[in-house]
């Protein structure tokens, strides 16, 4: 770190993840010279306070990135596709929180606790994985290293905030309408851009993102493909069912794994999880200790509980993995990547 | 059926399941001579309308069962343990909706679509399985028959009404308090009789019933053990994670199975599920067709969607199984058993 401070841009500053990125930057020590808040034309002009100063959100243009060292994108895939390469041309490292570049082989897909060395080969754009993938691989990486991973079968319990601020309002309003016995008019869930909409209040929707031709949803395919890329294990058997649920914050995951090594005990898993970076083990049935979406909300770690062995298959284990989808699942992981880029001198200028 | 009508008792008539049993009896053709509604001393005196007549709920005693042909119990395991054998002594067939006798080898554990012939060996008591088990085995039975089942890995999404009327009120009140930014005082979830209580509104609790020494909850062990007993397959590998969620009605289940037969297609599973008794297939990703807790509520069938093949393991399939936990999961299955007992002339007197 040779400079006094860095010029950071947040693209999508008024969105759910953008707001969290600003909050996380505020509490971290990353030396910031200038913070530039960018958005669509529609949200430009919004005033956001950062460390005591009122900053005006500006409309993003190619020129916005001229003097930027690191640009943190979370304004949707189309915005990333429009501006990320332009930002890189102007010398900014892009940390992209959308799915636009995640599976591009020239783009590292990084969870710092898992594969930070992939940052070394970046060519300007670094992708932040999908929220549901990040928390799973953070917990699985130490187990893969210690025991080898053979397969992963995950069923998710996902919060609405992953779908943005409007989605949070839809759950809140629908819930109140339901309690008041008023009619419900679903507008957003399961997927804003899909044809049919169903109630999310007091319900469970087994569709997150659009269906693919193979019958899986895009969210499920993201978990499958991204997990393999991050863990550098293309042959890993991963399969997923993703479900949206009526709570605001944190995704929970019921994860079933099979390990390669024979004779592994729950205690051995606990030991690895206890010392894993970014992971907090909360697992004591005797005192009903386990993480829940509410207990994990607002915290940066990935929480793991309900670790237990399959009673029939001695290589099989269950884990219950919970993390704040807007923090480790998005804003915190993005800021962690930015911090590592600076620490490792991986800026473009 | 040689008689004009039968004397039926409902034990626990004022409870969540008891009320549903009365509703189901009201819409069915089962010929009833006398309907006797029984409860604890506390609820005795309650008036319940049945087919236009006001019936007074009486306190259950041993003598209550003197003239009863079939007694439907859903007042908790201790009440069943106290009265079921006394009822049988007095000539009543007991259909017990609690866990008191389910794993007793002399007691058939019955889902009529799956193993109705087990009724033939009843000795007075017939057990109704756990709600989460019933819907799963109803959907799995046709697949076992057609392709053989090797293993089952289930993660549940369970409604609060499985925990009774008080539980429904707790979710309703907590949700309103949460929306009003008022303090929340959890009193019942995850388990009324356990030490700690956690919020259920806008949360997910990975504990249903008490923890066992092996780290599994009792609900999870019920799913494991009851599934094997009902499917008559003690060697079947079954493992479960059970999660309580903030919705009122219907359990959903993300079920992963491996079948014995090679080369089975999704279409073949669909075909078996389409013709399976008690099952409705709702599975068309092109039009976002899949069951949800709300779409299944109030209906008697077990609904199945999201059927798809594991992309890595050609014997592996996912299913999303949803059913009204108070109907097929409890009241409807109980009344079905009573109807079969009569049809098959299996009464004690």
UniProtKB/TrEMBL annotation, chains A, B:
Residues 7-122 form the Semialdehyde dehydrogenase NAD-binding domain. It holds the Pfam family Semialdhyde_dh. One of its GO terms (biological process) is isoleucine biosynthetic process. NADP(+) binds at residues 14-17, 42-43, 161-162, 325. Phosphate binds at residue 102. Substrate binds at residues 158, 244. Catalyzes the NADPH-dependent formation of L-aspartate-semialdehyde (L-ASA) by the reductive dephosphorylation of L-aspartyl-4-phosphate. This is Aspartate-semialdehyde dehydrogenase. It comes from Ornithinibacillus halotolerans.
